[in-house]
Amino acid sequence: MSVPHTLLGLLEVQPRHGYDLKRAYDAHFGHDRPLKPGQVYATLGRLERDGFVVVSGTDREGGPDRTTYAVTADGVTDLDHWFSEPEGPSAYLQPVLFAKVVLALQSGRDAAQVLDAQRAEHLVAMRSLTALKHGADLDRVLGLDFALFHLEADLRWLEHTAARLDRLGKELSR
Amino acid sequence: MTEPMLTARDLHLSFGASPALAGASVDVLPGEVLALLGPSGSGKSTLLHCLAGILVPDRGEVRYRGSRLDSLSDELRSGLRRTDFGFVFQFGSLVPELSAVDNVALPLRLGGHRRRESEARALEWLERLEVADVAHKRAGEMSGGQGQRVAVARALVSGPRVIFADEPTGALDSLNGELVMDLLVGAAREQGSSIVLVTHEPRIAAYADREVVIRDGALAAAVVA
Ligand SMILES: Nc1ncnc2c1ncn2[C@@H]1O[C@H](COP(=O)(O)OP(=O)(O)OP(=O)(O)O)[C@@H](O)[C@H]1O
Ligand SMILES: [Mg+2]
Which residues have CB less than 5 Å away from ligand 2 (the ion)? Predict the structure, then answer.
């Protein structure tokens, strides 16, 4: 998750002050990991220094000053670049899962058991994510889908590996 | 402790010399969605067909609401399939020459309901599944996704106690697959029906309350939610 670009993207939709920005971020992207207020202000500071956002107003309705930030033309250019550039294909699969299967294999353990345990664990998580989709807002649904598809990818890789092992085992025992 | 709706105990079934089931046991509880998972050729469809009384095991027993299903006559078993069970298969669930509405009305017609009433109820289900627009198309002329939704409507129309679904989303893209599952599971929950679901897609299995894994014709792992 690139926090600076995500905040910049939210500011492109509409200018906001820091707290508002944090709320928008948490609502769309931060269900599991809300932003810390300090992180918002530090990021805004850096974006301002780089010329991607400017202060577009201050209001002081009763409480403390509230500074509103807006995206600049350079900020939009930077976003254009971010959107047009695909992410490096990073491994979403938890490294520990990979390590476990490889090590199970290398040590002659039952990789199918590793798979069964992991499948059950993943499906418990997938079941609750699927249940959360029921009646949720579209952007929440999209976020839940994102998690679901990645968990599914883990499982597919595990099933694929187990099937390959089965076949390999059968070939070796011929 | 709730009595299971369906139980299979130590089922064995061979096609010629090759065993398809080798000691499979499973319970299906009332109102639960149970996923059958496992590699290709492991015996999932065979187990589903035994549970539904379509195939009779060589050995072991199948009970439906406490009574033996495997020892019923063919006639009684097919009667039960009509009154108590609904089916969705990956392919060929529908009669290709019949229109969508006639396909969905078929279980009601076979159950002795009048034509007009059967068609009205069939249309309601087609509407719920958002395929009322193809109601008068023949099944053979519909897209895979439309046909699958019509098949779901047909499986649900008579309010079955158990729905057997073998790869019901296998031919669908992920969004249509999700729509079909939402409707299938939603309607089953409403009616209190159980679902026995075979799938190889984890996201589809995640609709189930519980999954069992079959490997080489027997249960490898049973995991309670
Ligand atoms: N009618 C049949 N005649 C002969 N063999 C059969 C028949 N039906 C199934 N089999 C065999 O029984 C075994 C189990 O088949 P089954 O269809 O139950 O597998 P499955 O788990 O449903 O696989 P898939 O995921 O590919 O649908 C396979 O080896 C298959 O070849
Ligand atoms: Mg099958």
Answer: B 45
